[in-house]
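ok new one. same drill as before - structure tokens go in, u give me an amino acid for every spot. 223 of them this time. try not to just spam alanines like last time pls lmao
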């Protein structure tokens, strides 16, 4: 549904190499990390959480780059945040953070960058930003949820892709669980933490979520 093409892979490969060069990373370890990223994000059950998601986040990040304090941290967290994605598991974020920690150490990345990357990845579990959260962390969380504010057609494909990733869950249980997640989001004063992302995506995101919640209700009631 969110197709990852050879052209996209070429763009992502060049992007990863540019980041590794900028960080003066160990080349052998960086190449090994790239191979692992391709392998993990290419797992067959990933209808949405694949490299097309990473590419979309990176492109949104480019648009928001002027607002970043440490763009390297945001980009590293983007690459690694879904490296582990098992829909049967509840500890994907912790496992992804641990994987990233190991990979960044192997790449000999500046230790001052490693800790915040792990923090950003762990924050995706609840997608909440504490009062003391950095502006970069808030932006990173917004980048991850930018899909919520996409066009209605893209959002429909996104909702179908998420369902496909949880196709092992019975329909009624899926509708209940997904609806609860969406309700928690719309209960917030704002879905997006940063002014620029709020301006770009907030209104459409709320419209999209309202549509999906209605669809989920219809599936549950059969109407």
């Amino acid at each position: 549904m969110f197709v990852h093409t050879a052209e996209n892979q070429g763009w992502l490969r060049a992007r990863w190499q540019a980041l590794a060069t900028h960080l003066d990373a160990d080349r052998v370890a960086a190449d090994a990390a790239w191979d692992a990223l391709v392998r993990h994000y290419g797992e067959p059950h990933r209808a949405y959480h694949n490299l097309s998601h990473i590419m979309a986040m990176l492109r949104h990040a480019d648009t928001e780059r002027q607002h970043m304090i440490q763009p390297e941290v945001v980009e590293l967290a983007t690459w690694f945040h879904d490296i582990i994605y098992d829909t049967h598991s509840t500890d994907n974020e912790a496992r992804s953070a641990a994987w990233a920690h190991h990979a960044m150490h192997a790449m000999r990345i500046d230790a001052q960058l490693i800790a915040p990357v792990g923090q950003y990845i762990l924050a995706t579990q609840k997608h909440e930003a504490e009062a003391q959260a950095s502006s970069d962390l808030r932006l990173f969380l917004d980048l991850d949820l930018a899909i919520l504010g996409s066009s209605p057609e893209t959002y429909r494909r996104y909702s179908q892709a998420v369902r496909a990733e949880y196709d092992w869950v019975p329909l009624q249980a899926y509708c209940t669980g997904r609806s609860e997640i969406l309700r928690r989001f719309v209960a917030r004063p704002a879905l997006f933490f940063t002014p620029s992302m709020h301006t770009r995506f907030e209104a459409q995101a709320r419209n999209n979520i309202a549509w999906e919640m209605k669809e989920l209700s219809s599936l549950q009631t059969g109407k």
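The chain has a mean pLDDT of 95. and btw The chain has ten helices and no strands.
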